[in-house]
Amino acid sequence: MVMGFKNILSMFTLVLFLAITLCHPAVAVDNLNDGISLYSDEVNITQEVNITQTNDSQYLYSDTYENISSFYLSGNYDQSLEVSKRVLDSNPNSTYALYIAGLSLENLARENEATQYYEKALLNLKDADQNITEMVNNPDLEVLPILFLKGKISHLEGNYNDSLTYQDAALSAYGYHSEDLYNKGLYYKNEGKYEDAIEHFQAALRINPSKTDSWTQLGECYEAMGEYQKAQDNYDKALLRDPNNSELLLKYGLVAEKMDDYNLAIEYYDRVLEIQPYNVDSWRYKARSLEELGQNNYALTCYNQALEYDPENKTLWNLKGQLLDELGRYEESIECYDQALKLNPDHARGIGRVSEAPSIMIETDSHEVFYETPQFDSESAQILFNKGEAFYRLEKYEDALECYNDVLETEPHAVVWYRKATILKNYGDFSEAIDSYGEALGIEPDAPAVWYEQAVLLDRIGEYGKAVKSYEEATERDGNYTLAWYEMAVDLKILGKYEQSLEAYDKVCELEPSSAQVWYERGAVLDELGRYDEAITSYEKVLELNPGHSAASYQLRTDQSKLSQSNQKESDHRNNFHYTGNSPFLDFLKSNGFDLTFMGSGTDVSVNSLASIEDGELPAPEYLWYSRAMTMSAVNNTNKSLSSFEMATMIEPDYAAAWEGKGDLFKKYNQWDNSSDAFKQALSVNSDSVKLWHKYAIVSQKADDLQTALYAYGRVVKNDPDNEDALYNRGLIYDKLGSFRNAANAYQKYLSLEPKDMNAWYLLAQSAHKARMYDVSLSAIDTVINNQPSNQDALYLKSDNLEKMGRFSDAIVVYDEILDSDPENQDALFNKGLAFENIGQYQKAIECYEQLLAVNPQHVTAMEHKGFNLYLLGEYNKADVVYDQILTLQPNNADALYHKATIKYLLSSYAGSIIYYDRLLEVKPNCITAWYNKGFANNMMGNVDEAIECYDQALSIDPNNPSVLYNKRFALYRIGKSSEAKTTKLKLDSIDPGFEEALDNRGTKFFLPKEYDPNLGYELPSRWYNE
């Protein structure tokens, strides 16, 4: 429907405000990805409101309002609402302020108030009471605000299907408007009006920044204007969306060349060749850049590679010849020039045409021009024509041309025009030759070969569209004209008319089925159409005809991979949650359930102007996508919701609510990393939002990014010191990071707010215990026990704290509490025994261990402690029995072997002691006290040499041990090695000069441990006697 200007008066305020705040002028954008800003900073709040009365009772506000939308977009909803209300105080009918207020209230979870604002905004729009079905079926830009507001109201009322209907209609109107702007841009570009083209492409991108072609066209416009840096910037943005587009990569390389950045150009040509190793243009341009860098040998390699793929390319042979000239390889250069001259010039292609027609077609082409010599009316004309023919056969073309021109002045027959055309063609005057062919065909059109020759020249000057028409004329007159079908197929491909090109290639394959080149080029067209299965068939045919065709082999593998991936994606889309965020706009609409067929009757009132985007009549497209995302989320359509959020953030990268919605959606499906990234983007826009920091903290914690989560919770606590969840989770993270004191502090702050949370009290007790804050831990665990008297874990933690504080007797009382309810609790019995052991009550400790062993006779650790306590009590025989019991269960138990060796010594069995030390040292060879005691026992038995060996082993563990040096010295004296003994004494004196004096002629002792060490990490004393 077309409304014209019938609602301008009622929408005047909307026009003014949206023009400066809602829609960014396309003409101001050179780089949408970096510079897009929908909302101007020109509007500021001041203390005074300047109001100018207009003739329609609306108010014009000039430089008096804060940029409301900037507050909304950044997530500062309270501020955007406040400013909107200030606008409405002065202008109650400001549609713009009304729906920004509604959007803000919606994000503040004040849905009822938001609905009221939307309804009031709707009342301000004329035609809002028209038939809504007609608006939906025929949407255009003028009804878009109505559809937007009805969609918002329906969503808030829970009518999600209606809401989606309105949203889809509004987005469809935007979609077609975007395509129209793009097409107008193409028109202006083709007319050479690059600034107008740029304006339209930018306006199209304002609506749909995902369209790769728009970025590409912008780049081409800037390139044509000589603004190469801007061209590169826009090609970059296109490549972000389509990184493997070989045509784009090639364009980027060519622009780099124009900027004399040959290394960068080569980088991009190489990227093309990674995708298409057979791309002749890329090999050629790479060679050119290498020549500029003076790397001629590498350039020559590139030319050779290009010629391998396209051996009939005249230009390549010429370029290679020139390079060989420069290298002084003249004979090879001449060979290249000869090769170029052999190629049929009539089949040379224009710019953009890579390969020549297959030689088999050229060789078998039997078409000739059948223009018969006419009957001239005048004898002089006949003579001039004959004279011209004679000159033509003598190759005196200038004289021949002069004769033909004279004939044409009086009798313009077709054959004369044709002769003139052939001479002009040979002179390279293609435009005039084409005209002459046209004159001949105008007189006698039934000449397929003449149409063909005219088309070839049109190719030479790049007029592919006109060439196609001439080839069509040739094939209409001769349906089996293979060369004409082939050349037409190539031109149609260049023009992007792939379906028509495919039809022509099919005809060529029918007429000349043995040409591998034709089958290969047919496959390339099918690739462009995305019909990979059919392309595969073509490449297989190529390889059947030419098994060594490397390009076909590569492309066959590539297409097979693409087909496999495509099938997998379809399967994933059908069966799984799948996310992608980079699809062209209209394709996106179709894939998301839009029915675009009804748009055929719709009328885009703005197609003649860019003003519709800029004049403020339209809600920004990102608002529409965001609203659609929220509605899709409400109906649990996850994929479409996520894609809509993606479009909103692609259009407006600083849209905090859209990033937040995206993060929430990822969070819902436990995609923690993606969710974290989305919330991080939202925070880059609104770093003061406690809610956003909290969400960011939660998903970062879930993603195990603990440092980030800790920082984010810190930001929450900084702005909301009483946020219980943040304090609690900070404690958990500090615990996990091993920062127990900080964890305890966090739990204490949390418990000051939630003192009844027994789990948190227990966590505090644990963290404080690990931080050696035993008094804090004891207090916390007492709180838990007071509420949960039978909590054994808490009782154990309390006893552990008491022991760490040296309060072993109190710990024993706690163990008794545990044993009262569970008399056979092995842990309690064992720990109670340890507590008695720590206060020197060895008999009571033994009783505990015996109670434990009555429950579990094979509790080896309890046996080890029982044996050691018996040893401390001097009950050596009983201890010996216990160690035998252990060794029966565990023959290599180091603890039992060590202490049994000690017991044997104490029972005067030196030999028995040595036996057990030997067994121990096989298990634990670095036990220095075992080597010392074994040496001591050997010395007592008179085995001096064996004693010295033991002391040497001990010194290999601790070379400066005074006790071992002292005993070794006297052992050396005993066997007469006085020199070595003196050396050992000197070392001892240098290490510990007072050691021998402290012995007071009493000698060292056999080492007897006084405390239990399960690791046998005993050290020999520095002094053996306490003075």
Write structural notes for this entry:
With 1027 residues, the chain is mainly alpha-helical. Among the domains are: 1-202, Tetratricopeptide repeat domain (Serine Threonine Protein Phosphatase 5, Tetratricopeptide repeat, Alpha Horseshoe), CATH 1.25.40; 203-359, Tetratricopeptide repeat domain (Serine Threonine Protein Phosphatase 5, Tetratricopeptide repeat); 371-446, Serine Threonine Protein Phosphatase 5, Tetratricopeptide repeat; 806-857, Tetratricopeptide repeat domain (Serine Threonine Protein Phosphatase 5, Tetratricopeptide repeat). Helix content is 70%, strand content 1%. The protein is built from 55 helices and two strands. A hairpin with a 5-residue loop joins strand 1 and strand 2. Helix 25 (464-477) runs antiparallel to helix 26 (482-494) and helix 36 (672-685) packs antiparallel against helix 37. Residues 556-576 are annotated as: Disordered. It holds the Pfam family TPR_8.
